[in-house]
Design brief:
This protein is mainly alpha-helical. 81% of the residues lie in helices and 0% in strands.
């Protein structure tokens, strides 16, 4: 068949629509998995920093040193600034005592989590925003407003 004849065929149009939908679905699922792994990494880094500070008596300067060393080792990867390492530490401390919230936090993006951690002071309030952000697909801007 010629290309022009295939494109006008309703069966083909439906087929290509299905293929496109499947591609979008796979892309979305891949993004969700990447986000979940990134949050798991940030959780672990935060936990590791807290553990070392508690066990070794390391102070605040360790975060600055870790940030510096990570930026040297991984120059092409953003996210290892001292400010972000402090957020990772806070992420772990904030949700470590409530495993349900910790699980829920991995269903939204890092920037959403940072906004919730920085603006909400209690777990009940955090829970509301975690659930609402996921349920309604709020953007970062909608969330912070």
């Amino acid at each position: 068949m010629k290309k022009s004849n295939i494109i006008k065929d309703k069966n083909y149009v439906n087929f290509i629509r299905s293929v496109k939908e499947r591609i979008y679905q796979a892309q979305y699922e891949a993004l969700k998995k990447v986000n979940k792994e990134l949050l798991s990494l940030y959780w672990d880094i935060g936990r590791m920093i807290v553990d070392k500070q508690n066990k070794m008596g390391w102070g605040k300067s360790v975060v600055e040193n870790v940030a510096h060393d990570l930026q040297i080792e991984f120059p092409a990867i953003r996210g290892f600034s001292s400010a972000n390492l402090w957020r990772m530490r806070n992420y772990y401390i904030t949700y470590d005592s409530d495993k349900n919230l910790a699980t829920m936090s991995r269903e939204i993006s890092w920037s959403h989590n940072v906004a919730i951690m920085e603006k909400c002071k209690e777990n009940l309030e955090r829970k509301f925003y975690l659930i609402t952000t996921k349920k309604y697909g709020w953007t970062y801007r909608v969330l912070i407003n």
